[in-house]
Design a protein that fits this description.
- This protein is mainly alpha-helical and 91 residues long.
- The chain has 3 helices and 2 strands.
- A two-stranded parallel ribbon has the order 1-2.
- Helix 3 links the parallel strand 1 and strand 2.
- Helix 2 crosses helix 3.
- It is globular, with a radius of gyration of 13 Å.
- The model has no long low-confidence stretch (mean pLDDT 88).
Length: 91
């Protein structure tokens, strides 16, 4: 659907722009933490409905989000099948 595609694209551009600087990254993390904490009622959150982990900065930002919300279990469906470093998993 064009309206969904447009909204997803705008969120992607917003994310890429903010992740360019430490201040922007903090703003992105704070925004995402706040939105997820307000929205999640069942303790589970699926990160992507479309898309993937697209950069190390994005992965690091999500790591911060997860650390800020230890009461929520995150699911990251991904097309990635190889990594150069260990993947951190929840307890």
């Amino acid at each position: 659907m064009p309206n969904v595609l447009r909204a997803q694209w705008l969120r992607f551009l917003w994310t890429k722009e903010l992740l360019r600087t430490p201040e922007g990254t903090k703003e992105w993390i704070d925004s995402i933490v706040s939105a997820i904490d307000k929205a999640v009622q069942n303790g589970f959150f699926r990160v992507h409905d479309s898309g993937d982990l697209f950069s190390p900065a994005y992965i690091n930002a999500w790591t911060e989000v997860c650390a800020a919300l230890p009461h929520i279990r995150f699911w990251f469906p991904t097309r990635s099948w190889r990594t150069t470093s260990p993947i951190v998993t929840g307890k």
